[in-house]
Specification:
80% helix; mainly alpha; 2 domains; 302 residues; 12 helices
Length: 302
């Protein structure tokens, strides 16, 4: 639904100009496929980067671990062989790490195909949400159309702003990793871009994981501290300053509401639920504002 809403304004304009439905649906699907190809290219570049520099990173990590009794005692799991000339992971540990990744990859393609299928259904107007709202929730046509347009506008604003903010976060994270000579800058840029869609939690995860990774590579404590401060400043700039400014007052949700909905939808749908928690909450808040009995709930959410 949220993916399809991005293409609704374009489709509405083409429909007014008399463009057949099959053409504007094909254009929307083509844009989605193009975005998917771009994402695949970036992932391939990231994987090639990791494969080309992993030996140098493992050597640095081995030296760091050998020289740190704290890491050997409290950080490393028991399955890691602590040897005088380095460290290695046994096959059992490697399989434990690889199994979740393989499971995710095997489930990804069917999920993408099913998502594309339902997006096409939505774009071809097999599911007309305006009609559903008019016949169920809001039984006044003018009000239902007005409510749908507001939902559409707010969710599109959220998705576009969140995409641009996440893109900027990813670019600067990758750039700082490159400038500080931290391995895999393309990977960290893509990771920061993707995880930033998880509201509030994503920025903390990026800073913590990048800092732990940089601890292995950066020898001077001053460089490590400056790197952490730079990453934190990037997250604050994009997430706490620019994002609220460009979101405007459309998403006047208090912190308690955001945290509760983040945990609730994350419990139900996992990571996708955490990503969609804010659009779903905005959607519900707008609906609650349309009825006298539920206006108080909308006010509490704000």
């Amino acid at each position: 639904m949220f993916i399809a809403l991005l293409f609704v304004p374009l489709m509405r304009r083409l429909k007014k100009r008399g463009v057949p439905k099959v053409f504007y649906v094909s254009i929307s699907v083509g844009l989605m496929v193009l975005f998917g190809v771009a994402a695949f290219v970036m992932l391939r570049l990231s994987s090639e980067e990791i494969l080309s520099t992993q030996d140098a990173f493992l050597e640095k990590a081995g030296n760091k671990i050998e020289n740190s009794e704290f890491i050997q005692t409290y950080v490393l799991p028991p399955s890691v062989n602590r040897e005088s000339q380095g460290f290695s992971l046994d096959s059992e540990t490697t399989m434990q790490i690889a199994q979740p990744v393989l499971k995710f990859v095997s489930n990804l393609l069917p999920q993408l195909l099913m998502t594309l299928f339902f997006v096409i259904l939505w774009l071809s107007e097999s599911i007309n949400f305006e009609s559903v709202m008019n016949s169920t929730f809001i039984k006044m046509k003018h009000t239902s159309v007005k409510t749908f347009r507001r939902i559409e506008k707010d969710i599109i604003t959220f998705i576009v702003v969140k995409f641009l903010i996440s893109f900027g976060t990813g670019v600067f994270t990758g750039l700082f990793c490159y400038l500080f000579d931290v391995s895999f800058p393309i990977f960290w840029g893509i990771f920061a871009f993707a995880i930033n869609f998880v509201q509030m939690v994503g920025s903390f995860i990026t800073v913590i994981l990048c800092s732990l990774f940089a601890f292995v590579e950066l020898d001077q404590s001053g460089s490590l501290l400056f790197f952490v401060l730079t990453l934190t400043g990037t997250q604050v700039l994009f997430g706490s300053i620019l994002e609220p400014i460009y979101m405007g007052k459309s998403f006047s949700l208090n912190v308690i509401t955001v945290l509760i909905m983040l945990m609730f939808w994350g419990f139900i749908w996992g990571i996708p639920g955490m990503i969609l928690s804010i659009p779903i909450t905005v959607f519900l808040k707008i609906l609650f504002e349309q009825f006298n009995r539920t206006k108080v709930i909308a006010q509490l959410m704000g």
